[in-house]
Structure formats: C-alpha cells, structure tokens
Design brief:
about 25% helix, conserved putative lor/sdh protein from methanococcus maripaludis s2 fold, 4 helices, 6-stranded antiparallel barrel, about 450 residues, 5-stranded mixed β-sheet
C-alpha cells in the first residue's frame, strides 16, 4: 500500500530538521574546540611578589608584660580630727616643700583651753615649789609633796594634749612633693579622715612594679629591664650606677618616717599594687591569642621608635600573690617626665636564655580565619617559576620589622613578603628582583 502524501511530507520535514540540528551541533563543537585550543595556548596566570630566604638567628629570651609606675614617696594626706577650714595654703598640682603648711582647721577652742591649761600648770608649779620648801622644814608630809608633783605633771600633760590637737589641725607636707587637685574652700567643714590631697614626691628615681608567672621565677635581682614610653621621641636613658636594693628602700623609708613622725599630720601611705593586664600592651595591637605576659625571644631588628628608659630589678617578692598566683617584682628607673605615678607602661625583661629560631619580615606574616601562615615558594620540576604553598606557623618574638617563628619554618626556605596577599594555594609566583631598600632586616 502506498504512503499517503501527508505522511511523506512529515518524513521529509523531520529528516531535514535532523540534518540541520546535526550541522549546528557540529559547528558548535568545532567552535568550542577552537576556543579551548586558544585558551590552552595562553600562559598560566602568575603573580609577582618579593621574597626572602628564611634566616636562623640566635635569640636571647625576653619577657614582655605590663607594669605600674610607683613613686617611692607617695602619701594620702588626711585629717585626724574634724573641724572647719580657716586657711588653705596650696593650689592643686603645685610643688610644695617639706614642712610647708597646707591647710589649717579652726583651733579657737583648743587655744582657749590651752591658755587655761597653762594657767593651771603655773599654779601647780607654785604649789609644788611651796610644798618642797615646807617639806624641807618638815612642815608637811611626804604625801602632800607627792600630790603637788602629780598635779603639776597632770597640768603639763594637759598642755601637751591641747598642743597636739592644735598641731593635728595644722596639716603640713611631710616631704617635697607635688599636690593633687582639691576643691576645699575656707568655711568647709571636714569630717575626720577626709582626703586632703595626695602628695607625690619628686625624687631622682621611680619604681616600676610588675608580675610574672611562676614559670619565670628564674628572673632575679639585677636583671635589666626596659620600659617603653609610647609616642615619646628620644634616646634610651640609662639607669645611674650605684647600689640598689635594700639600701634604696631603707633610705626612702627612713626619710618618710622622719617626716611623718612629728605628729603634725596624719598621712596614710598610698597602697600600690602592680597587676598584670590582659593584652600585650600599648606598643602593638593585641591579637586574640595574646596573653598578659608574653615570653619572647629577641628577634634581631631595631626596637620600636619609642622612647625607652632602662633600669634594673631591685626587689622580688619571695611568695606568690594570693590573688593572681604570680611573683611580684620591682625595678628601679631614673625619674622621667613621661613616667607619672600610677601610669601603665610596657616592660621588657632581658633573660639569659638563648635559642636559634627562624626570623622573617612582618610583611611575610599573614593571618586569616584559619590562623597564622606564610606562603612558601617552591620550584616545581621543569617549571621556571615557583608554586605558592600555604604553611601554618606559630609566631614568637615581634621586634621592629621582624618576627621570630617558633614552629612551621626552617632556615633556607624561600617565602613571599611584599605582595603575599595576592597569592593562593598552588598559584604560580614570580619573584621580583631583590631590593636593597626592602628594610625588613632579613637577607633576600
């Protein structure tokens, strides 16, 4: 049976569509193959970076922590007796001399009582002299003479008591110092034990108190310390030569005791407590893994461009602090305008231990969500360039423009520095020519 004309037309149409589709597919396949061949002919993407060879150096151990500046002479001046202010002889923040009268309270009642006490003492003296004459002639008994002597002693004691009360209401500076701010005016009534002012002595040296963990108990008397003053330009100031330790402490204690032992003032010594604070200090930005006390090794390189005062440890607490379980230390430094009392400073203690560690420039050190790392540049077989390989590292000492690496690198490896942010794992890297002005402090 013959096919109908309609069916024949459909068969021809389908066959034509198939032929056209096959032609289009073939053309597209040839086009894609051409593009792939063009792309394959292009050179592999690469990034150009600077690089250095990791150098191993012998580093002396250093410990960085925070300390508190303590003035050897520092007291809070308080009144023992209440009273009304009749005179204020100082302005807040000014320098005062030893023995200078700072504030006077109303003593009219005491002075009136003192006149009566002196009159009674004079009468008792006359009675005593009369009793002695009569006793010499055996006109009165020994008991009468003893009573006259006792009455005279009581009268003299009353005078001393009133004079002491008047003296307590006249507050004087126990030593040459600078005063703190105050808001007292004539006519103010002061209850007993009111804070009048804080006196900070202006001596030739200051103390810096700091704490170290028990693991650093090998740090002892005589170790050198460096105190950094952020934002202050100037050269290092050396601690003056001379005996330190008990002799210094004794001199200050004796002087203070002699000044305050007259009974003219009531001085309460300000309690100074240097406590370690979390963070590596004001010299750098603290990172999540930073601790209050960081044991480091001195990577070669210049110290930060900040003023520094050098000193020496003069005292060590023999027992751990019950609060922080750390050892308290005290260092002696020459007085400095940028070391005010109670200020927080960065302290670096020089240790005697030394280790050999790799040292890299700070530009090679990278940190992301996975931690700290560097890019090690390794040359592949048959390749002209280097392949970037990510390597996790543990950082140690951070000085100037260098970082010591505790683990993750060995000496002689090539690492990327400037431009390392452009790299990723396995990318081809071209090393730029070495520049003598790199400023990293590590050989390229």
């Amino acid at each position: 049976m013959q096919k109908s004309p309609v069916r024949r037309r459909w068969i021809i149409t389908v066959a034509a569509c198939i032929l056209i589709l096959a032609a289009l597919v073939g053309f597209k396949v040839l086009q894609i193959r051409g593009v792939l061949a063009f792309v394959a002919a292009l050179p592999e993407p690469a990034e150009t970076v600077h690089a250095v060879t990791v150098e191993v150096r012998e580093l002396h151990q250093q410990i960085d922590t925070l300390g508190t500046v303590v003035a050897p002479q520092s007291v809070e001046l308080r009144n023992q007796l209440d009273g009304r202010v009749v005179a204020v002889h100082f302005r807040g923040g000014e320098a005062v001399s030893a023995g200078q009268v700072l504030l006077e309270l109303d003593t009219r009642e005491e002075r009136a009582g003192l006149k009566g006490a002196r009159a009674r003492a004079e009468l008792a003296r006359l009675e005593l002299e009369r009793a002695r004459k009569l006793r010499a002639s055996r006109t009165v008994s020994q008991e009468r003479l003893d009573q006259a002597q006792a009455q005279h002693q009581v009268a003299l004691a009353d005078i001393e008591m009133l004079e002491a009360q008047i003296d307590k209401k006249t507050l004087r500076a126990p030593f040459a110092a600078h005063t703190s701010l105050h808001q007292f005016e004539v006519g103010d009534f002061l209850p007993a034990n009111s804070l009048i002012t804080e006196l900070v002595g202006s001596g030739e040296f200051v103390w810096v108190d700091f704490s170290l963990p028990i693991e650093q108990a090998h740090i002892g008397l005589g170790n050198r310390v460096q105190v950094y003053l952020p934002g202050v330009s100037g050269a290092a100031v050396e601690s003056p030569a001379g005996p330190v330790g008990d002799e210094l402490n004794g001199a200050v204690t004796d002087e203070s005791a002699g000044a305050t032992g007259e009974g003219s003032i009531s001085a309460m010594a300000a309690v100074q407590d240097g406590v370690a604070v979390a963070g590596a200090g004001a010299l750098r930005v603290a990172e999540p893994d930073d601790a209050a006390i960081e044991v480091r090794d001195d990577a070669a390189g210049e110290l930060p461009n900040n003023a520094m005062v050098a000193g020496q440890i003069i005292a060590k607490n023999p027992a751990l602090s019950a609060r922080s379980r750390t050892l308290d230390y005290r260092a002696r430094l020459p007085a400095h305008a940028q070391l005010p009392h109670n200020s927080l400073v960065n302290v670096r203690i020089e240790g005697s231990r030394a280790r050999r560690l790799p040292v890299i420039p700070v530009t090679a050190y990278r940190i992301d969500q996975l931690g700290a790392f560097v890019y090690v540049l390794e040359r592949g077989a048959g390749e002209e360039g280097h392949r970037a390989q990510r390597r996790a590292v543990v950082a140690g000492q951070r000085g100037g423009q260098t970082i010591a690496i505790e683990s993750g690198l060995v000496g002689g490896e090539l690492i990327a520095t400037r431009g390392a942010f452009k790299l990723r794992e396995g990318i081809l890297a071209n090393v730029a020519p070495a520049s003598s002005s790199d400023g990293t402090g590590v050989a390229q």
